[in-house]
Known about the structure:
The chain has helices at residues 13-21, 48-56, 88-94, 120-150, 155-171; strands at 2-6, 39-44, 66-71, 98-101. The chain is an alpha/beta fold. It has two domains: 1-118, P-loop containing nucleotide triphosphate hydrolases (Rossmann fold, 3-Layer(aba) Sandwich), CATH 3.40.50.300; 119-184, DNA polymerase, domain 1, CATH 1.10.150.300. It has a four-stranded mixed β-sheet with strand order 2-3-1-4, with helices on one face. Helix 4 runs antiparallel to helix 5 (155-171). The two termini are 24 Å apart.
Amino acid sequence: xxxxxxxxxxxxxxxxxxxxxxxxxxxxxxxxxxxxxxxxxxxxxxxxxxxxxxxxxxxxxxxxxxxxxxxxxxxxxxxxxxxxxxxxxxxxxxxxxxxxxxxxxxxxxxxxxxxxxxxxxxxxxxxxxxxxxxxxxxxxxxxxxxxxxxxxxxxxxxxxxxxxxxxxxxxxxxxxxxxxxxxx
Length: 184
């Protein structure tokens, strides 16, 4: 499994990444966009069941489950329209299986906040909106392609068009796709 660590600039994403991976691979500094290219690391997932099972079934090698973490550059309001690092973050987010959002909930005059004020609720909304806008852009591009393919009578493409339209309609209600229930 691969999880991307996202959030506004300067909220502690790289610090969390370094703590979880027991490394100093990700540079962390008191200025926005310290991270431009993503940092990647792998952590073992502790599972006592693995040790217990290995007492009965002796493997040649005991390999615990692993989680790949990706420290993604900070997202700012307007990123979907080119602000900050723009849509560059989208490429990296699309490649992960899960998103871990880091939100700053502490005041510290020595640590710059990109908006000038610590407001966790607003920060969460900013990230959510940018991710939804990115989803809309991706879906609109996919819809055009799927509609062209569906015109040839391709049943799978017709189904894809239907699902994409449902997703776009759901996003139009200002709700993220994770809250959309699709049936088989």
